[in-house]
Amino acid sequence: MEQPLLIYNTLSRQKELFKPLTPGRVGMYVCGPTVYGDAHLGHARPAITFDLLFRYLKHLGYKVRYVRNITDVGHLEHDADEGEDKIAKKARLEQIEPMEVAQYYTNRFHDAMNALNCLPPSIEPHASGHIMEQQQLVKEIFDNGYAYESNGSVYFDVEKYDKDHKYGILSGRSLENIKDASRELAGVGEKRNQADFALWKKAQPEHIMRWPSQWSDGFPGWHCECTAMGRKYLGEHFDIHGGGLDLVFPHHECEIAQAVASQGDQMVHYWMHNNMITIDGKKMGKSYNNFITLPQFFAGEHERLERGYSPMTIRFFILQAHYRSTVDFSNEALQSAEKGLQRLMDAWKAMQRFAEGQKVKGQPQVEMKYVDELRQKCYDAMNDDLASPMVISHLFDACRVVNTLLDKKASITAEVAQALIDLFRTFAFDILGLTVDTGASNKEREEAFGAVVNMVLEQRQQAKAEKNWALSDKIRDDLAALGFEVKDTKDGQAWTLNK
């Protein structure tokens, strides 16, 4: 924990020295998915970004409580508190229970996160399981004079709050700018001001997901859940709140207002945000209908994909860019990432050959000083606001050294070789979270597998054509011993794998 970690704080708009509120412990809250559809590449980015931070903080010796929520109620179709609940709409269209939708896509989200080698959070609270905590938050805000009731719904009074505090400190927006943007809607609906946001919404008769409250049978506003659950599991003040840059406004801005209005001060010290994944220069997202889901990426089943890409290729693709920079999707970029990942994995496998050292007469020796300096460069990069591209660059430098060893243009002692192996394991696997991967998708592996079997069967067909029955039978029997059943049909040979 002696490493001087700098992280960019969106609130102060500068890098700050990370100093946890409680020595040795870190509380971190990250906004999770709204589970009404499969996770896409845009969801993978915050998951991988904050997995990187989680891994690094633990590596530095901190005891980290990482909380990532599941939004399974309260997120309407539009952030302006309008429309239908996204999960309820999906349930209505598919004629199933809303919680059936939520559970199905939560399970699939977990599958995708496991494939990407993202560590599970310490706690994964569901919004629907914390209705009481959200009602308590709304009551505190209401009792403090920063909310009003309208037709059974409760809204946050942004104008009153702005007079006493300051609304817009995270996003840099002023209340006047926000009001100007929605002036054409002024006076419409239940709100006093179109900048006001829902804390509690009265459920319409057809709305399935509803809970009793002192105001009405209804459901919480979207912004309430993170404030309420963050406070429950991390306390009134905690270290880090993370999420995508698209959440700065309105979601995180509203979270700050709710915290100050309910308890008098901010809950969060460091606000961290990853930038967007773009496609043709436009943000990838479900609202733009330009997204590619992670299962589609893995299988190669989308018109924009030339083929499938492995989860580790996706992870490496995202880590190759700094988390605060945009990343534009293209097949070319993914294929380049695939090659880069393969280069690292090839070097890792080759390193094992030098664990006992290598002596090559007349060639320079790789010194421990080189490994020590390389290790420090990797730490310096991580400590500079998680500069993962620089870490990867330094690991590529280690690949270059491995290649000189393979070419017998350098010598290395067993001690230095082991230090290089340990360095690579620490930064490539433990911190960056990569795993040994061929870079090929499951579909590609299956195709390659089938091609090899067909090639062997072509040799058998050739043997039969030459009336070499002994070789033909041997190939069939050898395949049978490996679990392949080969049948001769009128159309040729057919095979199945029985184990």
Task: Write a compact overview of the structure shown.
This protein is of the alpha/beta class. The chain has 16 helices and 19 strands. It has helices at residues 41-59, 86-94, 98-115, 131-143, 158-164, 175-181, 224-234, 248-263, 294-299, 311-319, 331-351, 368-383, 388-406, 414-431, 442-465, 469-481, and strands at 6-9, 14-17, 25-30, 63-68, 76-78, 82-85, 147-150, 153-156, 197-202, 218-220, 238-244, 268-274, 277-279, 282-283, 327-329, 365-366, 411-412, 484-489, 492-497.
Number of domains: 3
Shape: globular
Number of strands: 19
Using only C-alpha atoms, the radius of gyration works out to: 28 Å
Output the CATH homologous superfamily of the largest domain: HUPs
The CATH class of the largest domain, by name, is Alpha Beta
CATH architecture annotation of the largest domain: 3-Layer(aba) Sandwich
Cross-sheet strand order for the largest sheet: 4-3-11-12
Mean pLDDT: 91
Q: Major beta sheet, specifics?
A: 4 strands, parallel
Which spans of ≥5 residues are poorly predicted at pLDDT below 50? none
End-to-end distance: 50 Å
Helix content: 40-55%
CATH topology group of the largest domain: Rossmann fold
Total of DSSP H or I helical runs spanning 4+ residues? 16
Q: Find the structural class using helix and strand composition.
A: alpha/beta
Beta-strand proportion: 15-25%
